[in-house]
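User: Quick one: structure for sequence A, then sequence B.

Assistant: Sequence A:
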Amino acid sequence: MERPAGRKIDEIAENAASLAESIVKEATADSLASVSATRERIEKIRAEYGMKLYEEVDRMRRASERKSDITVASMMEKVHTECLSVLKEKFMSMVKNSDDSKKKEWATMLIEGALSDLGAGILHIREGDEEVASPVSGFETVSDLKASGGIMAESGDGTVLLDYTLESLAESYWNSATGSILELLFG
């Protein structure tokens, strides 16, 4: 027996609807699986990118710290140089403007220090300072010092050289004061 045409159409429509529903379910399942895989991949990429970003930010931070350290060191070197220059200038001015009795007192103090450290040797002074640096027993006095003032004392065998020049004394004073200055500047 043949089915009526209306029923056959209904049956085809039902089969088509069932097939369409099956296709939609399968497509939805595939789509959900694809979305899930895509999300996992996105999270993996985010994690990798995040780690790379963190590493890059950390590298940039370290570079910035090094640059900052270099800048601070450069500033400190500039301050050191300028302060030392001013200190030397003031020190030299003070010595030059001192009367002969004060110069003789300082020279005597430096020579006594050299005498106690070396006992004997060669005393190097500036040309023109002979009257300030009176002869000392055990020391030969030579006027060959190329400095703004002060003395250099050399042991008799030439193995020890004591630098008591004004420049050296100013540098020594600066180095001893640097710690206090840094503490004042940076706490």
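Sequence B:
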Amino acid sequence: MNRKHAIVAGFLAASAVFFGIAYAQGPGCGPDGKPGMQRSSMKQGGMMDPGARVEQRLTRFKSDLKLTAQQEPLWQAFAEKSKAEAGKGFQAMRERMNDTKLVTAPERMTQMQDIMKQRVAAMESVNESFNRLYAGLTPEQKAAADKHFSNAGRHRHGPGRGGPAAAEPRKG
């Protein structure tokens, strides 16, 4: 595989990982578990706080799973790993945006590749702890987890906005 194909493959793989992490940090959820921007997940300047978002998503997911006391240590390991990785991608992006040093295009590409490698490593770490949790779930809990993650990275929109309702023909 030549270098160009390797770079493209790397970007595609990193994009898939980014969307996986974005799911874990998903849109802010209200107390009712519905997505939407909530004041509690806002930082100064109107930026979403990745830590608050992941906390909301984890709370909702844990509620869906209905964990037993014996499963709690597996959950805690997964939740701690998810929280630890929550803001790293945004931090790297902010640092890159604030970097005023002029670099060549190949140097910038290398920087982007390094950031993506870090995100892949973070996702692998979260995935490892999730796999341990998943292995300890009952079949019903696994079905709930499968359902929870079936919408990973997808944005739910209302009719006419590209969501499932938009794909159906309008009546009347």
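The first helix runs from residue 3 to 25. Confidence is low (pLDDT under 50) at residues 25-45, 160-172.

User: Thanks, that's what I needed.
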